[in-house]
Amino acid sequence: MSTVVLSDQFSLVNSWINELRNVETQHDRLRFRRNMERIGEIAAFEISKDLDTKEIEIQTPLDKIKVQEIAVQPVITTILRAGVPLFQGILNYFDKADCGFVAAYRKHDANDYFSIKQDYLTCPNIDGRPLIIADPMLATGASLIEAIKDLLTNGSPSQLHIVVAIASKQGVETIEKEYPNAKIWVGAIDERLTSKGYITPGLGDAGDLSYGEKLQR
Known about the structure:
Helix content is 30%, strand content 34%.
């Protein structure tokens, strides 16, 4: 489909991304989570314009009226734990949606290189329904591709939307190649990845900034 960069034309999204990146503000966890949530809300609003609609009739206090409504409610999913605030923003707007969750993480070695570990998925039937995946950081694309593969075992969605706060150019190109029918909604795209697969300038670890540093066993 296409990739939409939400910050291409200046709006409040740019200000929220600035705060997500800025070391002077990003350690305010409440603000960090809320800014992620806001980006999710804006993405959800834009996605709603792409969804199929149906005509229904409703009764107002004065008369009946025919209006347009979402034809099929989407399924919203995310990768735990970093994706939860972005996911919540999308759910705030698609408040009738069903939800799914994937547990995946980077397993680091002594040299800080990593492999993708994924060991949990819960999701409703997505057959014929729009599927929205929230993943705050799209670096190499490896973990997102694994998550999508598992999610698609639950059916064939009518549309695939991917919502990302910060992406690398390489990650976007990888997803576009692997899933050409997907539509990516991204806050901002950074040009580079480090040799260890981190987005730069990026913003750091979205999960740690949302919920605190973790021990990895």
